[in-house]
Amino acid sequence: LDNLEKAKLLIAEKDEELRKKEEEIAQLRERLGDVEQTVVVPTESQAEFEEKVATLEKKIAEMEAEKTQLIENIKAEQLVVITEKDKHIAHVVEELETARNDLRDAKNRIQELGEKEEEIKVAYLENQLSLLSDPDRLALPPPSSPKPRLDNVDETAKAQIRSLETKLQLANQSFRNSEAERQKCEQINRDTMKRVMQLESENGRLKGITEELSAKLRDSASVQVLEEKDARIRDLADERSRLQWRIGELSQWWSDAKWKIGELEAGVAHHRHMLDTANGKIQNLNDQLATALRASMCLAKGNLFPLIKLSFQLQGTADLIDNGSFLNWQCALKCDPIGPGKRGLMVDLPRGRHEFRFLVDGNWMTSSSYSKVPNGFGGDNNLLWIE
């Protein structure tokens, strides 16, 4: 009876411990469910963040490509305008250089004509001086000279005068030609200077146009568009950095959560092992209690179940031991002789399925009088059904 009370107290303690373990496991499962639900949200948020980051990176790449294309187009337009202006300026400079060369040639020509004119004047004056300084040509003929000689002298003087007049006319004509040439060169010089001034004015105007185009280009809407795109790209880059930082935080949180889940799973596995161990102990205690109760009831009230004879054919004097599930395989009963070459014993068995076997000289054996079933250890057990 003391053993029965101890067994009852032990069963009550185990039931209480089992109840606490079940409550603790239920709490752990509830916490695990909360953690799993909590963990799912960051996964979706992380996927959304990654998708948003990919979209932003794609948008940044498109805007950078558009910016690069716009810059290339503007540079191409500037290059075309500058090339045309450079060509025009080069043409103007070439014309200006040509005009300057023409002006220099005209000045040289005027100088040559002036020198030639001076030479002609000097030659004419020297000729006149030589005529005036010749006494033979200025002296009158002597009175005793005959008249034919005087006539010859007059004819010679007249011829010389005509020759001088002809030379004078030629000199005057040459002077007039030189003067006309000089005036022509001066006109060319004036025209050249006028053309030079026009070209310089055109060059200044083209430079003004170029500066105006550069100013318009700087103040154009394309520059504003580029600045806006640059600002937008910077904003997107900042947002991408923030999202990447947030993704890093969520990844760290997810790693911590998985580590915590691993700890919880390990704790759950440990508690399950403890629960299984407790269940095994409880089952053993239940079996022991049933055996003890059955033994005590048999001792107190006699046989509650029908007596069943178990027999075994055995020759010789060796001891025969019987063990079975009705003894929870924890104790054995010695069989007594019940006839020639036969031994057995009487046991009270409840309804149900019972397995048993016999031990002879350290060897497990079965009886051919009963059916056999495998025992899971490479051998067989006898089987008996009680209706």
Defining key terms:
6-stranded antiparallel sheet
What does this structure look like?
The protein is α+β, with helices and mostly antiparallel strands and 387 residues long. The chain has two domains: 1-301, no CATH class; 303-386, Immunoglobulins (Immunoglobulin-like, Sandwich), CATH 2.60.40. The chain has helices at 2-132, 135-138, 147-219, 221-301; strands at residues 307-313, 320-324, 333-334, 336-339, 342-348, 352-360, 363-365, 371-374, 380-386. The strands form two sheets. Strands 2, 3, 6, 7, 8 and 9 form a six-stranded antiparallel β-sheet that branches.
Please tell me the total number of domains.
2
Helix-strand topology string: HHHHEEEEEEEEE
Q: Count of DSSP E strands?
A: 9
The Cα radius of gyration reads: 70 Å
Reported for the largest beta sheet, the result is: 6 strands, antiparallel
Percent of residues in beta strands: 5-15%
Short structural summary:
The protein is of the alpha+beta class and 387 residues long. It has 4 helices and 9 strands. The chain folds into 2 domains: 301 residues, no CATH class; 84 residues, Immunoglobulin-like.
What is the secondary structure topology, with strand pairs?
Elements: H1 2-132, H2 135-138, H3 147-219, H4 221-301, E1 307-313, E2 320-324, E3 333-334, E4 336-339, E5 342-348, E6 352-360, E7 363-365, E8 371-374, E9 380-386
Antiparallel strand pairs: 1-5, 2-3, 2-6, 4-5, 6-7, 6-9, 8-9
Helix pairs in contact: 1-3, 1-4
